[in-house]
Structures are given as C-alpha cells and as structure tokens.
Amino acid sequence: MTPVRRTPRLLLAGAALTGAALLTAPASASAASAGPTAWPTGCAYAKHTSTMTLATCTHHNGGSYRAHADCKDPDTGKVKTFVGDWRQTGDSKAYCGGATRVKTAGIETTARDMT
C-alpha cells in the first residue's frame, strides 16, 4: 500500500492508519506490484470562496492529488472534512456541504495514480 501525504492536520490520523495497515497486511516484494513511486510536486492549495477550496500541482510525476476543505457549521460549530476528486492535472475542488463554510484548506497527495 502506497502511503498518502496529507497536510499537518491529517498526519496523526494517517500515521495511525498506516501503522495499523503495516501491522495487519504483510507486503509482497514483487516489482510488478510496486507501481509509480514519485509524488506530485509544485503543489499549492487555497480557500477559493467561502464554500470551496482548490488544490493543484504543477507535476504529477505519476502520482495524484486532491483538495481538502475543513468546513464549519455556523449554528453548531462542528467541523466536517470534504474532499475533491483525485487529479493528475488541473484543479481539484472541495466543496462544503449544507450551510457549512470553509475554515481551512488542505491537500492530499499520493504516489499512486488514483484517477
């Protein structure tokens, strides 16, 4: 399983999930299943509107990326995470649902082709 790079707010959860996967799923040393190992580079992400974030990378290098949006409900204060489509080119867009509004933007990258 190829690990996924996340913005700092997601690293702890990702480390826990990766650790659990390594403990429960032995990996094969087959070159045929290795796939691409390069991560996207030249990546940027931002809050685009009050309800949408954008993420893009200038070079996919065989990997993929997608936008993240942490969105806050103005009535309850609860924060939910929404994600955009996996991309190798162009903008990935994450939209807040319902009455929620973007609190923070982020990006998730992987060395695998997820498109």
Would you kindly provide a written description of the structure presented here, covering whatever features stand out?
The protein is mainly β and 115 residues long. The longest helix has 17 residues. It is elongated and about 45 Å long. About 23% of the residues have low confidence.
Task: Write a compact overview of the structure shown.
With 115 residues, this protein is mostly beta strands.
List keywords for this structure.
3-stranded antiparallel β-sheet; 1 helix; single chain; 115 residues; mainly beta; elongated; 4-stranded antiparallel β-sheet
How are the elements arranged and paired?
Elements: E1 4-6, H1 8-24, E2 41-49, E3 52-59, E4 64-72, E5 79-83, E6 92-95, E7 101-110
Antiparallel strand pairs: 1-7, 2-3, 3-6, 4-5, 4-7
Q: For the terminal residues, how far apart are their CA atoms? A: 16 Å
Helix-strand string:
EHEEEEEE
What general form does the structure show? elongated
Mean pLDDT: 80
Helix/sheet category: mainly beta
Low-confidence region ranges = 8-34
Total number of helical segments? 1
Secondary structure tally: strands: 7
Strand content: 35-45%
Strand arrangement within the widest β-sheet reads: 1-7-4-5
Radius of gyration: 16 Å
Largest beta-sheet characterization? 4 strands, antiparallel
What portion of residues is helical? 10-25%
